[in-house]
Amino acid sequence: MVEQNPSLETLQDIKRMMERSSRFISLSGWSGVAAGVCALIGAWIANSKIEDYRSGSSGITLEGNGVSLINQLLIIAVSVLIAAVILAFLFTWLRTKKNRTKIWDPVARRLMWNTIFPLAVGGICIWRVLQIGAFTLVAPLCLVFYGLALLNGSRYTVGEVKYLGYGQILLGLLNLWLEGYGLYFWALGFGVLHILYGAMMWWKYER
Amino acid sequence: MMKNPIGNLNKIFDSRIRLGVMSILMVNEEISFNDLKTMMDVTDGNLASHLINLEENGFIKVHKGFIGRKTNTTYSITKAGEKAFKEHIDALENMIKGIK
User: Are the beta carbons of A106 and B35 separated by less than 8 Å?
Assistant: First the structure.
């Protein structure tokens, strides 16, 4: 007969309360995979736009108002971001349903603030970089700030997020010196790393 | 001879709600009444009475503040509370070891 030890049960209770109150554990691996797929599609579209521009057949300019290459790329980037965030929310929401946990609890709030804050700071820096016209710095800075945001947020969710953060930062720093390969690094970081991370998380926790 | 481990178990932590509050406060510097309520899934009155009990025992500190006009009461653990909680966990551990 298996009899549950009451002391052990109490300790498990304590552990669960500590975990639930300090970490948002319902982040779904599928969220990572979906974000990665969005990023790869975005990078592919962006690449074809850049090739169009380089071949000169499209007749669009690099900068300026209206249909310029930079504006097109910005629209792609923002669309990718919106799609990735919506899908990430969707999969995590589905997981909270399954686990019967809340998606918007105090821990989720802390996780959001701790990732959005560094991202917003990064956004302002990149905005200024765009104004100055140092376009080769955009991709590395995206990766570095995103990596720092993940690192900061990892304290409030599954700890493995920090490895994803280190990966993004490493790619971003390399890209600072390998100028002109921004799109490839971007696809590698936001695309491939996300998919790898998401698949590993799914394998480990959700299977 | 082994000391009776049950003697070290703190009666105050018999209640699951009080134990839960202490667990949450061990890993969170400060937490509001409403957040505690959401995490514990209990009613206002029930939680309030347990919090008063913990406060009277000197295990938690209460900070009364305002956000605009609404009261915002937050709680944090005291040194004595931390010590009592750790002793309680040790006692639980010893009981498990004793059974083995």
Answer: yes
**CA A73 and chain centroid, separation:** 18
ipTM given for this complex? 0.80
Question: Can you give the pLDDT of all 207 residues of chain A as single tens digits?
Answer: 456 678 888 899 899 889 888 888 888 999 999 999 999 999 999 999 999 888 887 778 887 777 788 889 999 999 999 999 999 999 999 998 888 777 887 888 889 999 999 999 999 999 999 999 998 999 999 999 999 999 999 999 988 999 999 999 999 999 999 988 999 999 999 999 999 999 999 999 888
Q: Who among A13, A18, A105 is closest to B27 (CB)?
A: A18
A23, B29 in Cβ contact below 8 A? no
- Number of C-beta neighbours around residue A84 at 10 A: 21
pTM of the shown model: 0.80
The domain limits of chain A are: 27-206
Distance, CA of A107 to CA of A155 (rounded, Å): 10
Q: Is A106 on the interface with B (CB under 8 A)?
A: yes
